[in-house]
Fold this sequence. Notes:
The complex is a heterodimer of chains A (about 170) and B (about 500). Chain A is built from five helices and two strands; from the N terminus they run H-E-E-H-H-H-H. Chain A has helices spanning about 5-30, 45-70, 80-120, 125-150, 160-165, and strands at about 35-40, 40. Chain B is about 75% helix and about 0% strand. Chain B has 22 helices and two strands.
Amino acid sequence: xxxxxxxxxxxxxxxxxxxxxxxxxxxxxxxxxxxxxxxxxxxxxxxxxxxxxxxxxxxxxxxxxxxxxxxxxxxxxxxxxxxxxxxxxxxxxxxxxxxxxxxxxxxxxxxxxxxxxxxxxxxxxxxxxxxxxxxxxxxxxxxxxxxxxxxxxxxxxxxxxxxxxx
Amino acid sequence: xxxxxxxxxxxxxxxxxxxxxxxxxxxxxxxxxxxxxxxxxxxxxxxxxxxxxxxxxxxxxxxxxxxxxxxxxxxxxxxxxxxxxxxxxxxxxxxxxxxxxxxxxxxxxxxxxxxxxxxxxxxxxxxxxxxxxxxxxxxxxxxxxxxxxxxxxxxxxxxxxxxxxxxxxxxxxxxxxxxxxxxxxxxxxxxxxxxxxxxxxxxxxxxxxxxxxxxxxxxxxxxxxxxxxxxxxxxxxxxxxxxxxxxxxxxxxxxxxxxxxxxxxxxxxxxxxxxxxxxxxxxxxxxxxxxxxxxxxxxxxxxxxxxxxxxxxxxxxxxxxxxxxxxxxxxxxxxxxxxxxxxxxxxxxxxxxxxxxxxxxxxxxxxxxxxxxxxxxxxxxxxxxxxxxxxxxxxxxxxxxxxxxxxxxxxxxxxxxxxxxxxxxxxxxxxxxxxxxxxxxxxxxxxxxxxxxxxxxxxxxxxxxxxxxxxxxxxxxxxxxxxxxxxxxxxxxxxxxxxxxx
Lengths: 166, 502
């Protein structure tokens, strides 16, 4: 790994170790607000306190290991390129869209919109292919899962969409 | 023998049309997903979990188990034809399988892989039957302190074997345990780390977490770099020559043994099983120079070991309630969702269920042999579907599955967050399996520790007073310390050789 990339990997690993340490300490601190021990044995705070402490300790040891190591361990190409980062953001964004809208516009429309978006933008599929796959994955899945397998999926709660039977 | 009688009853349940159908669907879906590059068995089970949501426990677990061993079969096809392993355990198959394909012998490579997998899987299932009675009888003697010690041992094995970095494995195991404490405390019933969210009172839902870590994480990794490799479409004849059979008998026998033994050890992975059996073959072969150049033994041994491992993996799950791998942990999750707690009492309280699942494994292996030999051309066709359509389908299915767990959009957010974490962990080379295993074992561990301390009046020495518990904890401590001592031992060796040279 070239020196510049190695330094970048080491810096990133250091940040990750820091996040783990803070997470462990925060969990241990929160656990101190719970009862540690009772007459019956360990209380609700017992396990999280020890685990939070252990996470912080092991993360600290890893941090020391990173700082002492002569090269960053197997973490080349950590940062995605601009196009890769955009694709990742698009997938996560489309999932967030479904989570926000699934009970508002219903499963079928939310899923149709998500699949349509990812197929058109990320998959670069033709419009006809996009429409067919998105319809199968939304309307088709709704009837298969709901009708045959008994999995209940939400309908729209917006009145005008609900009136359309969506 | 009582086990054989119970197995006979198990077959009676497993061959009921509904159960046969779900075993077939599981094998077909598992093979189909296993064929797709980059999707391992854990991701496959995560993606396909929603299909089993509304099934009765027996067909649901029969199907999940079939998906599990189906993906292992499917992974071979891409290894041989594309030099691209469908799942990690098939990496080693690429070495000789792809070379065989380049010489027009893809059919023979796939045939020996299917036959070896069938033998390995069937022998391991026989082992499961034979060991069931003995293991269950001994497991019934196990109390809370011993059970806690066994869980610690499972975790020590897992963290020692799961990754190149011991510290990273331990960090992930502890993080999994910490995440398992989210929700209501199991004894006092007070909320922990719920941040006022009602959705978190029951803890983090296992399904959205694993769907995120494996399914979405995998998609993000694949989407980051686009592009696919060309694959060898020419299958050639599926018929094996007399030489092929002669050369494969030994590797299949040894592969079965290696896979079975490793399958009993929590934390060992099918990757280790296939690599170990391959390296064993290169050691025992009279012509090791043929390996890597299309030697049929290089396909037969790892594929047999891989499937033998997968079936043997059910032994620690059924007898002790300890899942050996992330995929088995997901099957355990599916069992628990259906009110079935894996462990020694499972055989006693739900004998019909356990023996039906075991019997279905024999049937599943036959189904897979049929699906993978005459129908291999059909699976190859799947590779013609563009990845852009496949990933959209996976995305849709995981979203549907995450929502359907408890009809809550919150679970889609959980999947989203863990999807990003899964991606980040893979990039940073943090092993995900310890996190998934401890997430599912955490509540069991906490409950047994607290039960042990209640038994001992709050005194920790109860864990060391009982011989079995003490022995298991000592083994766990030794295993946990081993990776730390290895570098030190290496340095001592270097120093010693330096002194000898000077």
